[in-house]
UniProtKB/TrEMBL annotation:
<dbReference type="GO" id="GO:0047936">
    <property type="term" value="F:glucose 1-dehydrogenase [NAD(P)+] activity"/>
</dbReference>
<dbReference type="InterPro" id="IPR057326">
    <property type="entry name" value="KR_dom"/>
</dbReference>
<dbReference type="InterPro" id="IPR002347">
    <property type="entry name" value="SDR_fam"/>
</dbReference>
<keyword id="KW-0560">Oxidoreductase</keyword>
<dbReference type="InterPro" id="IPR020904">
    <property type="entry name" value="Sc_DH/Rdtase_CS"/>
</dbReference>
<dbReference type="Pfam" id="PF13561">
    <property type="entry name" value="adh_short_C2"/>
</dbReference>
<dbReference type="InterPro" id="IPR036291">
    <property type="entry name" value="NAD(P)-bd_dom_sf"/>
</dbReference>
<protein>
    <submittedName>
        <fullName>Glucose 1-dehydrogenase 1</fullName>
        <ecNumber>1.1.1.47</ecNumber>
    </submittedName>
</protein>
<comment type="similarity">
    <text>Belongs to the short-chain dehydrogenases/reductases (SDR) family.</text>
</comment>
<feature type="domain" description="Ketoreductase">
    <location>
        <begin position="11"/>
        <end position="208"/>
    </location>
</feature>
Length: 274
């Protein structure tokens, strides 16, 4: 349903990897707040279409664009198509990401490279394209700015594994740790242009990426030992935080990481004095 608040009325939002999970929830949430949303998928067109259909059924506006975020030509084409269709861009949610897990000693270069290419290089390509677009549309009367303060907002999807080491997932943890410094460095560089850049770092969120854990009762119980708040997160928990960081309500927040993890980063192992 379209919210009466309409915090993102007429703003144009790209959410990468929004055919599923957290990205899908973000796309639906932004559309519910009046945004025109680009739903991006890499290979699963059917799931991408389902996100767009769900937005249309709720009375929102969205288009579907295929792009592999690790490929420069795909990313440039996605941003071109967005501006051709909607005339401008206000928010980038750089969300697409994946895991290719393996013990470090057995990890192949391919497993390492794929995760770095999508999770980190994909962020570089999308953030650079978004920032260039934000700057190109300043003082463009044909594309008036709908946000009152910044000229554009970027939210990167990191993970608690940007600070919690993760054996067996070194490619993933390295990519998320990399996002932290990438985000802070571009936030510093882009702030004078009035572009805001922040990250959200989810803990355990119930999506296809970690189905193997939440669908197994024993593993789920083990997971609860890591979450002081004693529940798994929902994609909507993350979407609401992403929307706040993209809104004028957080205008003075820049270069920050917001942990959405039910307390996972509170070292719960120490709650009984270790
Ligand atoms: P998911 O598997 O449901 O979604 C991942 C999305 O990324 C999918 O839509 C997929 O199609 C897309 N994608 C993968 N490779 C792509 C590519 N090359 N180009 C474009 N899109 C691509 O999982 P999710 O949990 O929703 O993950 C979304 C983001 O949240 C990821 O960056 C992930 O690392 C992060 N995250 C998830 C959790 C969690 O517990 N679920 C926790 C922390 C961080």
């Amino acid at each position: 349903m379209i919210s009466p608040e309409q915090k993102f009325k007429d703003q144009v939002v790209i959410v990468t990897g929004s055919s599923s999970g957290i990205g899908k929830a973000c796309a639906i949430h932004f559309a519910g707040q009046g945004a025109k949303v680009v739903v991006n998928y890499s290979s699963n067109e059917e799931e991408g279409k389902k996100t767009v259909d769900e937005i249309h059924e709720r009375g929102g506006e969205a288009i579907l664009i295929q792009a592999d975020v690790s490929k420069e030509e795909d990313v440039l084409a996605m941003f071109r198509e967005t501006v051709d269709k909607f005339g401008r861009l206000d928010v980038l949610v750089s969300n697409a990401g994946l895991q290719k897990d393996a013990p470090f000693l057995e990890m192949t270069l391919q497993e390492w490279q794929k995760v770095i290419d999508v999770n980190l290089t994909g962020m570089f390509l999308c953030c650079r394209a978004a920032s260039r677009q934000f700057l190109a549309q300043v003082n463009n009367e044909e594309a008036p700015n709908h946000s009152e303060l910044s000229i554009g907002k970027i939210v990167l999807m990191s993970s608690v594994h940007d600070i919690i080491p993760w054996a067996g997932h070194v490619n993933y943890a390295a990519s998320k740790g990399g996002i932290m410094m990438f985000m802070k460095s571009i936030a510093q560089e882009l702030a004078p242009h009035k572009i805001r850049v922040n990250s959200v770092s989810p803990g355990a969120i119930k999506t296809p990426i970690n189905k193997e854990v939440w669908s197994d009762p024993d593993k789920y119980e083990g997971l609860m030992n890591l979450i002081p708040y004693k529940r798994i997160g929902t994609p909507q928990d993350v979407a609401k935080a992403v929307a706040w960081l993209s809104s004028d309500d957080s205008d003075y927040v820049n270069g920050e990481t917001l942990y959405i993890d039910g307390g996972m980063t509170l070292y719960p192992e120490f709650s009984d004095n270790g």
